Amino acid sequence: MGKASPYLIHALGSAHASTAVLVASCGCVIGGLLVAWFYRDGPFAFERRPFSWALALEVARHRETRPRHRGYLGHMWELYAMWTWIPAFSPRASP
Questions:
Q1: Which of 3, 21, 43, 60 has the fewest C-beta atoms lying within 10 Å of its C-beta?
Q2: Closest Cα to residue 27, out of 4, 8, 5?
Q3: Is 22 within 8 Å of 44 (Cβ atoms)?
Q4: Closest CA to 30 of 1, 65, 70, 62
């Protein structure tokens, strides 16, 4: 459902923020139930292994992968920074 769904629901006509949050929360519950009921592993199963800090450091040291990690982390920083500043630049609704 994403973090923006309450804003979308509010923009589409919900008079109160609590209504928008309630509708978005119900959508998330429905989405979670759909995943719980219908999710199946893909056709290429693999053995699950515990997390390894050694492998995480190996990936961090891998020169060809490093720019992709930086790009992803930069994108996520930009995305969340944008969502943080939206209320600051949005016009205030009158009470």
A1: 43
A2: 5
A3: no
A4: 1
CA distance 79 to 35: 25
Judge whether residue 51 has pLDDT over 80: yes
Provide the pLDDT confidence category of residue 90 given band limits of 50, 70 and 90.
confident
Q: Which residue has the tokens 């693999």?
A: 46
Residue 24 · residue 6 · CB < 8 Å: yes
The neighbour count for residue 28, using CB atoms within 10 Å, is 13
14, 20 contact by CB (below 8 A):
yes
Tens digit of each residue's pLDDT (9 = 90 or more) over 62-88: 999 999 988 988 888 888 887 777 777
This model's pTM is above 0.85: no
